[in-house]
Amino acid sequence: MSIVSPQLLSQRIQQMEESATIKMAQMARDLAAKGHDVISLSLGEPDFDTPEHIKEAAKKALDEGFTKYTPVPGLVELRKAIQTKFKRDNDLDFEVNQIVVSNGAKQSIANICMSLLDEGDEVIILAPFWVSYSAIVELAGGKPVLVSAGIEDDYKVRPEQVANAITDRTKIVLFSSPCNPTGSVYTADELKGLADVVAQHEGVHIISDEIYEYINFTGKHVSIGAFENVKDRTITVNGFSKGFAMTGWRLGYLGAPASIAKACAKIQGQFTSGATAFGQKAAAHALLSDMSPSYKMREAFLQRRDMVIDLLSAIPGMKVNQPQGAFYIFPDISAYFGKTTPQGTIIQSSDDFCEYLLNQAYVATVTGSAFGADKCFRISYAASEEELRESAKRIAAAVADLT
Ligand code: PMP
Ligand code: GLU
Questions:
Q1: Of 28, 73, 84, 334, which one is least surrounded by beta carbons within 10 A?
Q2: What is the per-residue pLDDT across 97-110, written as a single tens digit (0 to 9) for each?
Q3: DSSP states of 173-203 as a string?
Q4: Do residue 135 and residue 259 come from a single domain?
Q5: What's the CA gap between 324 and 292, in Å, rounded?
Q6: What local confidence, expressed as pLDDT, does residue 364 receive?
């Protein structure tokens, strides 16, 4: 076995941040494997199984021989289903050749960044933001420019903040709504404000990550790409992981101007080719058939959200927002900074706080610093009611032990 020195690895990989969500989930698994009673609220993954009718569609597709390579941007059948879905749910008009299916929305975002960014191009990322955005942008040679909002603004960035951050090098404005990690949802008016700013700057694109579309508690999901003044410059990203509980299927997609979609397919053709054939057949079925399992999951998440807000608000010093979507809550925990743990460590950051929760209470969460918000930490409440109650109890006890 040859031993490769870490210094031999590329600068690119040495400089890349490891995904904090994935890292924390693995730390929780490792502790559990050592026999500790760990509750993992770290990974953003529905705890529900994929609805039965979608699994049946995949089995049928396998039996029918959908076991071969597909066209790189996806089966025409799936892209047509996505076209219908974009029109039906989002008021977005895309031709089939503007749609590219990938191995997860993560790959869709990577395809776009690799297609649009040259060295030093700037990407305005609305913060708090999902951990992989900055890593993907940097890998593609771009420069992340964070524009942030705190809990007092419900974690939503104002249009004038974006206007102030735009420079000659700005290529993309990137955000998710419903947002990971905050659960915040931009209203139609707020999206219009952002669209109006971007519309004034030719050459600036929007990546609108709408993967939590079906876990939106506001009643109506709005897509920024539906505004006339940015419709030709918006790339709408979505996927099956969250709304259909299909994280392990690895299926995401985008709708984009034709030239960008073509570029995304070109890069995907060199990296991974088309997504899994029988999965794509099942995904087409998912989009065009009974959506009630997704709505049921949304209702369950909403009930848990309310429960988690109640449980966390009862902990002295914990400041919580009221998330309007996704399955995350992102409390401000800066009240604990400067306090000392029973082991004598001073909590100075969200990293310290999450490490303390993991080692003291065996509750795995994710540090806010990974999302560009060091005063906060993220809890994924896609877990059972029992686990959520028990973890809140443990967090309260750990916090009470700080002096
Ligand atoms: N965007 C956001 C905001 C997410 O939280 C996730 C979660 N993994 C993704 C994209 C990527 O999802 P996937 O690759 O599983 O489709
Ligand atoms: N998006 C999820 C999360 O934020 C899954 C893990 C990941 O891909 O980051 O936890």
A1: 84
A2: 999 999 999 999 99
A3: EEEESSPTTT-----HHHHHHHHHHHHTSTT
A4: yes
A5: 20
A6: 96
Cβ atoms of residues 69 and 277 within 8 Å: yes
Domain that holds residue 306: 6-49+293-400
Name beta bridge partners: 38: none
Ligand 1 close to Cβ of residue 279 (< 6 A): no
Contact criterion met (CB below 8 Å) for 112 and 260: yes
Which residue in this structure is represented by tokens 């693995």? 26
Residues 357 and 392 in one domain: yes
H helices present in 18-104, as ranges: 20-33, 52-63, 76-90
Query: What is the DSSP code (8-state) at residue 314?
Result: T
Angstrom distance (rounded) from CA 372 to CA 146: 8
252 and 298 share a domain? no
- CB of 43 shorter than 6 A to ligand 2: yes
> Which residues lie below 8 Å from residue 176, measured CB to CB, with a gap of 6+?
129, 130, 208, 209, 210, 211, 212
- Tell me how crowded residue 360 is: count the other CB atoms within 10 A of its CB: 18
Pocket-testing residue among 24, 132, 211, ligand 2, by greatest number of atoms within 8 A of Cβ: 132
Ligand 2 center to residue 78 CA distance, Å? 24
Q: 253 with 390, same domain?
A: no
- Residue 16, number of CB atoms within 10 A of its CB: 15
pLDDT for 297: 97
**pLDDT higher than 60, residue 296:** yes
Quick: pLDDT tens for 114-143: 999 999 999 999 999 999 999 999 999 999
